[in-house]
Specification:
This protein has helices at 14-27, 34-37, 43-58, 64-77, 81-93, 98-107, 114-128, 135-143, 148-171, 177-180. The protein has a domain at 64-171: AhpD-like. Helices cover 68% and strands 0% of the residues. The longest helix has 24 residues, at 148-171. It starts with 13 loop residues before the first helix and ends with a helix. By secondary structure, the protein is mainly alpha-helical.
Amino acid sequence: MPRTPLVSPQDASPEVGAIYADFASKMGFPGPPNFLQAQGISPTVVKGTWGLIENVLVNGLLPRSTKEMILVAISIQRNCGYCRAAHLACCRMLGVDEETINQLVENYQHLVSGRIRTILNFAVKCANDPQSLTDDDFASLKDEELSDAEILEVISMSAAAIYTNTLADALQVEKDALLQDI
């Protein structure tokens, strides 16, 4: 059972309702997921969460599908069931093929794409122990022709994954049907 009440779009304040609508529109969802509704009691928190997601996940240079795979890999490593399920649904929504999704879930080290595998290795290491990142880790991304801005996006996605995993786990957000239909 969630630790905060879910604030539905009908019960949300005008400010929160506007954030829900913007989130759904830009994320391509039919409505706000439980993750966002669990934050609806605080306009400050829901606005901050959406700002982070919009600026780091939705916008930027890296494809959103790559960023969603980063979120899946880190959520699996951190054992966040809600985020794992939510971002797998987003991968499907964005057209990531089932073979890639299966490899991502079973062991992303077996991904065919060396570029994606390199990005995920870096992102997971960054999420788990950012102090252990070496010049060789950064060079591996440069070898895959990532720009400095794209590398910063990978680092930001790692931090965003920790933030969202922490919220989802602490609030015990339940997986929602909304994401199963995507």
